[in-house]
Amino acid sequence: MKQFGRQWQVAISNDSETLIIDSLRVAFEIDKTINDKPNPATFQIWNLNRNHINQLLSQSFKKIALSVGYQTLRQIYLGEITKVKVKRDNLDFILFLECSDGHQAYTQSMAQTTLKSGATDEDIIKSLQQTMPTVQAGTIDVPNKRKLPRGRVLNGDSREIISKIAKNNNADWSIQDGNLVFLPRDKVLGDEVVLLSQETGMINSPEQTDDGLELSCLLNPALQIGGLVEVRSILDYFNGQYKIVKLSHQGDGLGGDWVSKLTVVGGKFEKVKSGEK
Description:
Blueprint: E1 7-13, E2 18-21, E3 26-33, E4 39-46, H1 50-57, E5 63-69, E6 73-89, E7 92-101, H2 103-108, E8 110-115, H3 121-129, E9 136-140, E10 152-157, H4 158-168, E11 171-176, E12 179-184, E13 187-188, E14 194-197, E15 202-209, E16 212-218, E17 228-232, E18 240-252, E19 259-266, E20 270-271
Parallel strand pairs: 9-12, 13-20, 14-17
Antiparallel strand pairs: 1-2, 1-5, 3-4, 3-18, 4-7, 5-6, 6-7, 8-10, 11-12, 15-16, 16-19, 17-18, 18-19
């Protein structure tokens, strides 16, 4: 299957200005995982005007968002620009951007507060999210409803405290497109189930690996870390529903297929209720 009418939009911004790029050549590679490490991405942009190149080199722009689609746009990446360089190739100026989703929040956020008795793990996570000013609360589903019997001082790296809570709840936490997501390993996001088949853009046959089932398809913006996919392969053995634990997108506006690659794991999964956030 070919997915026609593809389009893209890159938005580069600071607190007062947003630069929209939707007609220049752009190439991108995005990697996402369900673990807590910031999701990296690289972008190449051809022949941006000199003024905007200078602004990026001087780090005037801090944020980047990529939206893609085939009739309508859907955001597939939001992150911080961490490194910028430019290269000249004959008449072309190519801008290289290295990016990270939640980098500042992950590396710099510190907790220093006192929790009241009766606080739950979910209360603690939401308190820690407040120490990450660039991160919003996404899907937060905490199975353990225990309450603190007495007040407690919370002090240390926010990420380390959340990681301990995740371990105690058999859950994963991550920052996905600027949202803090806390998801038990036996649950999936409450969004749509994405069907992957030859008819919907699956490329070749699934491959079993130590990390799970690996799949490739034409780039699909509906795919999300922690989301549920239904696989319909020519080989019945692989058919079923799986949870996405790794996801990458790559494409080039000049041409060629835009591709999503994902690693998924099987099991019995319950959808997070819509009110749990």
